[in-house]
Amino acid sequence: MHERTTNAAATAVPLPEQQGRSYTPGAGEQGRAMTSTEAGRNARPAGRSHDPLTRSERLLVTVFVTTFGTMLAAGALGFTTLSGQFLDMQEQIGALQKETSTQLLDMQREIGGLRADMHEEIGRLSDRMGQLSERMTRVETLIETHLVPASNARDPAGP
Prior knowledge:
By secondary structure, the protein is an all-alpha fold. It has helices at 8-11, 36-42, 55-147. The radius of gyration is 58 Å and the shape is rod-shaped.
């Protein structure tokens, strides 16, 4: 199942016979100055900076950070504005409730006063109706006794 399809000996890369210089300095080389050959080998190509981002990538990052900061600031400003408006609305609603309750109490007092006046007037009207009824009875009695002949007169005791 896992058979080799290539010859390992034929594909192997031969190692150089002479080992090159080590990448790390030896014990005696640590304090010496770098040669121009070594400096050229370690130097980066011209026109390429040590920054891993290109100029366009840096520009995009700057635009993104600026946009994000602006959006964050706008959100904070919007939140502050909305919370202030909500507080103002709560104060206005509280003032309206207070004013409405005051007006309602005033109306209840007025209605109570009108009720008392109305009961008083009804009492007066009732008294006047009683007086009027008495007068009508007297007038009827007067008419029956003086103006109606004795044959047509009603019997006060009943029929």
